[in-house]
Description:
This protein is an alpha/beta fold. The protein has helices at 2-20, 50-58, 107-121, 138-149, 161-167, and strands at 46-47, 63-66, 89-90, 95-96, 129-132, 155-158, 173-174. The strands form 2 sheets. Strands 1-6-5-2-4 form a 5-stranded parallel beta sheet, sandwiched between helices. A two-stranded antiparallel sheet has the order 3-7.
Amino acid sequence: MRELVMVAAITLVPVATAIAGPVAEPSAYRTENYRADVPDTLKGARVVDTPEVVRLWTAHAAVFIDVLPYNPRPPELPAGTVWKEKIRENIPGSVWLANVGYGVLNEEMEAFFRTNLERLTGGSHERVLLFYCQERCWMSWNAARRAVEWGYRQVLWYPHGSDGWIAAGQPTEKATPLQPEILRH
């Protein structure tokens, strides 16, 4: 009987997901459960698919911004503690602005994000910005939305992120995150 119940539960999971339908675009930033299904839209931005991202990358027609979170080695770890740095492979030429995709940014992180967008665009709000993270990652949605709210007019959001890029057989490179001073201690 236990096996039958487990089979029934496993069988119903895809059905329940299919019945739930598409994710509605929220009216506010996502502040929890960042690895979940994302909406198909982002008001004020244009959603792009992998073939378009490949075209933009090949033509050097956008500033690629990876917003995957990054956790540096905690400074309080005792000497000799093994810390294995996670390797991030992203779209070549991207700038990794770590941790700017959270729903709430403290003052330092917001300043870090704003300053780097200004630097990357040369102060032009017309420069094409392409935000991504991983598939099913609200971090890129939040970051792109924030850029739109700050007046950037050419914001692209790539919801498939590095997972979609890699699945399409595109090249990657090992990334090093840019971080505000508060994360480097």
